[in-house]
Amino acid sequence: MGTSIDTNNIALTERYPWQRFAIRHTLADHPALSLERLVDVARELPRERVEYNLGAVGIGMRPEKVPLNGLTPEETVRRIEDNKSWIVLKYVEELPEYRALLEQCLADIEDHTKRALRGIHAKQAFIFISSPGSVTPYHIDQEHNFLLQIRGQKTIHIWDPDDRVAMPEEAVEATVFGQNAHRNLPWQESFRERGEAYTLTPGDGVYVPVHSPHWVKNGDAVSISLSITYRSSWSRRYVGLFAINAKLRSLGWRPAAVGKHRFIDALKHRLVLLLAALRRR
Length: 281
Ligand SMILES: [Fe+2]
Fold this sequence. Notes:
The chain is α+β, with helices and mostly antiparallel strands and about 280 residues long. The chain is built from 7 helices and 11 strands.
């Protein structure tokens, strides 16, 4: 039995894992998530597991244009109150105290959702620390994601994962190849009314489905959030279909949209498995 994520929320069983929904959690006062402890973690983590930059960016800013802040990770966290920055500590589950937190949260969810998803893997935890007013630009992720607010307030705007006005197929395909794929995607003000805004204060959280477009704006205090992410057999297949479509499109084809024809999707999935097997030989 778990105690971190409140599983009394009926939405967790009805909407998971395809639709967004709000949750509550009990981690806001956890010592591993205090700013003091996170200063140490920022110093101890290998440099490649820390990403940070100035936080006062536009909703639609491209990643290569996002400016750096000129500080070390440790200084960035220590002075987050007034350095107008955004920093993420990645894969913190490799440290035992966060591994325990991650496992606890996933156990809470799984108690209620065992039948919804199989083959859960790539379980990871990220901690976002950001200055007042920081923005995380519009983007999608390839993982299932529970975002838990620990300190301060932020508003996350979320769209349906299959909203092809807010996020056309080609834009999704542009994100599936590797770490250098553009994470921040074309934003238009007209998208705004198609999404839904959740304002999170400590103890609040939200589930963000795979490929659900989102962007985040901090309130006027320092914000700390914990993000619990994982993949599943379903998400691996789903993301793979976009990868194969990206490949076909680059060859001049106009592939059928993912989800439109089950038979074609099944065929493409076979192709993905075949290519993966060939690559392993
Ligand atoms: Fe995200």
